[in-house]
Specification:
Elements lengths: L3 E7 L2 E7 L2 E5 L4 E7 L4 H8 L1 E6 L5 H9 L13 E2 L8 E2 L4 E12 L3 E13 L4 E2 L2 E2 L1 H4 L2 E4 L4 E4 L12 H6 L2
Antiparallel strand pairs: 1-2, 1-5, 3-4, 4-9, 5-8, 6-7, 8-9, 10-11, 12-13
Length: 176
């Protein structure tokens, strides 16, 4: 799973929590979803402000990223942990040190037995200049973090192993 930091305003202050349950939901308009346990502080801020951010930290921020998953915004003020900026929504804090930040307007909240699933429309995408190559994000330069379960380990990306929606065409040829 991707390791992300979900940002929201919580009682007027920026708050971030580590989240791995993140997925694209729709292509046009661009929607992204995140699953968050109902006991966390972050859902309160998302529901109140109708916005959130999904920030993709890199390896250099692994300690702060893990910290945001250990301590609760109910008890700890995490607003000064990162250099924060805001986009057009003004209520979805983003992290300057992150490789990629997505500013989202809340579209729908699905209430599960233990988790909320927040669906947001991506209103802005902000990439670090350091990870751009020819105007596109280079995943190796972005140095994204991944989470594996049930061993709960952080990983970084390796080398590309094939071109999506392309390498399987060999099987189409062989089975024709």
């Amino acid at each position: 799973m991707p390791v992300t930091l979900v940002g929201c305003l919580l009682k007027g202050k920026a708050n971030f929590m580590t989240a791995g349950w993140v997925s694209r939901v729709n292509a046009n308009p661009p929607w992204i979803g995140v699953g968050i346990n109902r006991t966390h502080a972050t859902p309160e801020g998302i529901i109140e402000n109708k916005s959130f951010s999904i920030c993709f930290p890199n390896r250099t921020n692994i300690l702060k990223t893990d910290y945001c998953g250990i301590v609760s915004g109910k008890k700890v003020d995490k607003s000064s942990l990162f250099t924060i900026f805001y986009g057009d929504l003004k209520t979805a804090p983003m992290i300057d040190e992150a490789s990629l930040n997505l500013e989202c307007s809340l579209v729908q909240t699905i209430e599960g037995p233990s988790n909320y699933f927040f669906i947001g429309e991506i209103k802005g995408a902000y990439a670090s200049q350091q990870c751009l190559e020819d105007g596109r994000i280079n995943p190796a330069k972005a140095d994204y973090l991944l989470l594996t379960m049930p061993d709960n380990s952080y990983w970084s990306l390796g080398e590309p192993v094939g071109k999506a929606w392309s390498i399987g065409k060999e099987l189409i040829k062989n089975n024709s």
